[in-house]
Amino acid sequence: MPLFFLLLFSSLFVVGQEGETIELGHSISLHSKILNEDRSILFSLPDSYNDPSKTDQLYPIIILLDGYVHFKTASAIVHFMGSRTNRSYLMPETIVVAIENVDRERDFTITKLQTKRANTMGGGKKFLDFIEKELIPYVDNHYRAAPHRTLIGHSLGGLLTVNAYLDPHSLFDAYLAIDPSIWWDETTMESRMASMNPTSIDKKLYWATANQGEANYERNKKRHDRFVAMMEERWRDKLQVKQDYFEEEDHRSVPLPALYEGLKYLNETHK
């Protein structure tokens, strides 16, 4: 087992006094006027957040999609990589803000596919509006958040992450797309990519590709490679995109190593 996995999992177990509760984070319910519904949001704060000597310190934020699924894993990795107790110094201490799901197909797709069954697809732009116009202002007003924001998504969440990266008006500074489902509407994405401007390419994108097997090679890895190659051909050295292929990981197992490697890349200048 790689060393960082051993350190990660050992960091989850803290010896405390008998009966003491050790909390990973907390949750709130936030009403969205844009989505016309209540959304459950999970927060994990840095180790030093409540330190009386650091009440003026601001912390960058991570917005994490599929919050219920990835919250514990992402929070543990972020704490390990940024905690001054561990002295790893791989990234700054960071606030993790995880959004629990209501309707993934609706929220993570920006186009509507024609299907035999009724569907709710195509609400991705509205969902990004909720994040940028309601959630981020809430975080800024209630937490000591620095003006640096990273968006992380897996699968359809990765698709939304790439689409946010392609949007020159996006409020995010960095993007971590884990095995993004770009097969959903590749033509639309390629059209948006062709019109990318320097606002997008000035931002970092980490792209993780999983091994989905030979049967899905065309559907997944080949599409990923071609899309990244098109961006590299258009922008060359100006592009700040790193793609890693995790040959030993499938679609379900890839988030753990991708989060670690992706956050290292996105924060590689931080010491």
Structure description:
By secondary structure, the chain is α/β, with parallel strands linked by helices. It has helices at 3-10, 67-82, 104-108, 124-142, 156-166, 186-194, 198-201, 218-235, 255-266; strands at 26-32, 37-44, 59-64, 95-99, 145-154, 174-178, 204-210, 241-246. Strands 1-2-4-3-5-6-7-8 form an 8-stranded mixed sheet, sandwiched between helices. Residues 3-15 have low confidence and may be disordered.
Summary of the model, kept short:
It contains 9 helices and 8 strands. The protein has one domain (24-266): Alpha/Beta hydrolase fold, catalytic domain (Rossmann fold, 3-Layer(aba) Sandwich), CATH 3.40.50. It has 271 residues and is an alpha/beta fold.
Secondary-structure map with pairings?
Layout: H1 3-10, E1 26-32, E2 37-44, E3 59-64, H2 67-82, E4 95-99, H3 104-108, H4 124-142, E5 145-154, H5 156-166, E6 174-178, H6 186-194, H7 198-201, E7 204-210, H8 218-235, E8 241-246, H9 255-266
Parallel strand pairs: 3-4, 3-5, 5-6, 6-7, 7-8
Antiparallel strand pairs: 1-2, 2-4
